[in-house]
Design a protein that fits this description.
Elements (H helix, E strand, L loop, with lengths): L1 H7 L1 H15 L5 H13 L11 E5 L4 H13 L3 E5 L5 H18 L5 E4 L4 H8 L4 E5 L2 H10 L4 E4 L3 E6 L6 H13 L3 E5 L3 H9 L4 E7 L3 H10 L2 E6 L20
Parallel strand pairs: 1-2, 1-4, 2-3, 4-5, 6-7, 6-8, 8-9
Length: 256
């Protein structure tokens, strides 16, 4: 049903995407949203998931994230409040309207809302009736959010990639490609060099990272990196962006 609703609104979604891309220099395509709608809809949830919680979503405004979490919100009877600052507003606004209509058609009592031009004051007001925050992105900004708002936080590191190298000149072409891709797709890349054991202390901090990469020809360093780095995905001497996508486990919406 979600996939069909996207197809039904293809023309106006394409117009919204074109407007946002021209304004923000983005590269989003209608097919990207279709893939999210298809992939999330086809996942096999082995048990009934019901939350009834209200989540504030703090992220960079990526419409693919908006769509996936809105779908998961409906599937888990959770309420989603998306907080953005202008980024891809036309596309996000339209997606929220489509998901609101879908919730009404299916008789789902959960809701999805979008707040634009968000300020800290707006977030604080929303925390008064929210149960948790979902923070997506930069690990350093995550720590700022944790200090500012007195709510449990679900952290997802999508859009924040860590790269370590001990041979910048050798891997310079690959590093430039990663940097360019990140810039074009609003992804934060934290580059690390120098003593690996010391750098690992900064890399890991105290939460699980999403994606880490090492460029090195030293097998001992590669093995140490793979053993010590606290990351869901680890790449060795290759770009992490071949199949880079947002991945969120619906069970996190019911974790107490």
């Amino acid at each position: 049903m979600i996939y069909d609703n996207l197809i039904k609104n293809k023309e106006i979604l394409e117009n919204a995407i074109e407007l946002d891309n021209s304004k923000w220099g983005g590269s989003l395509k209608f097919e990207d949203l279709l893939k999210v709608g298809r992939d999330v809809s086809e996942r096999d949830y082995k048990k009934e998931v019901s939350s009834s919680n209200t989540y504030i979503v703090l992220y960079n405004g990526d419409p693919k994230i908006t769509l996936e979490l809105a779908i998961l919100g409906i599937k888990s009877s959770s309420n989603m409040i998306f907080m953005i600052y202008d980024d891809d507003f036309a596309t996000n606004n339209l997606l929220i309207k489509i998901m609101q209509q879908l919730a009404e058609e299916t008789g789902d009592k959960s809701f999805v809302k979008l707040y634009n031009n968000v300020r800290n004051e707006d977030i604080r007001k929303s925390t008064e009736f929210a149960d948790k925050i979902i923070y997506i992105g930069d690990i350093f900004e995550y720590h700022n959010v944790k200090r500012q708002y007195n709510l449990p936080i679900i952290y997802n590191g999508y859009g924040d990639v860590t790269v370590y190298t001990d041979e910048r000149e050798t891997f310079n072409d690959e590093l430039i490609k990663i940097n360019n891709y990140a810039f074009e797709n609003d992804i934060v890349v934290n580059f690390h060099e120098g003593d690996l054991e010391k750098e690992l202390e900064y890399i890991n901090i105290d939460v699980t990272l999403d994606t880490c990469v090492i460029f090195s020809n030293d097998e001992n360093k590669i093995n140490l990196f793979k053993e010590k780095v606290n990351s869901k995905k680890i790449f060795v001497n290759e770009s992490p962006f071949t199949d880079y996508r947002f991945d969120f486990d619906i069970s996190e919406l019911t974790t107490e």
